[in-house]
Design a protein that fits this description.
Length: 194
Amino acid sequence: MIPSNLPREPFGAQRGDMVVARAWKYDGQAHWVVPGRYLGADEHGHWIYQPAGSLVSRPGHGHLAQTDALCLIPRSGYWVGTFYDDPSEDYRIYLDLAAQIGWRELARGGWEVNSIDMDLDVIESRSRGVFLDDEDEFAQHTESMHYPKTLVSALRNQATFLLNLVGQGQAPFDQTMNSWFTRGRAASTDARSR
């Protein structure tokens, strides 16, 4: 069941805390689950480091991540971002349009950030440039899952806005991620050396 009315901020989250990023579909089906470590926050939102080897899972599929990634949970808006800095990864930026983004503390330590994946993705690909993906899935689910018209409009506006920001290389879609990758890798090295 999709958690609702969760706060948009993880009040009390500390650097190094485990964070489980959990996405759902609008009809309540489980979608992607990816664990990581909380790095901190800046004006763009909350950054989570997901090192290579992290489990990336959804019902019926799971794999270990081949490259490091950063997840950015913005303080507002209808999106969740994943960033890659490995040239072997075609995608550099992958923004999932999302609704009901919210945090909750886990019973035995760590955090969970939940969101509803709303199909549309704004992607910056090294081979294809910046584009909007899964418009066909969005149109199909708008009808079959009865997305509210106000939400559909908000998501389309958000997608247009993000396409422009990513296309222009505006923060945080510039080199902002570099310092967060450095922090994540340093924290991961520190944890392994203990």
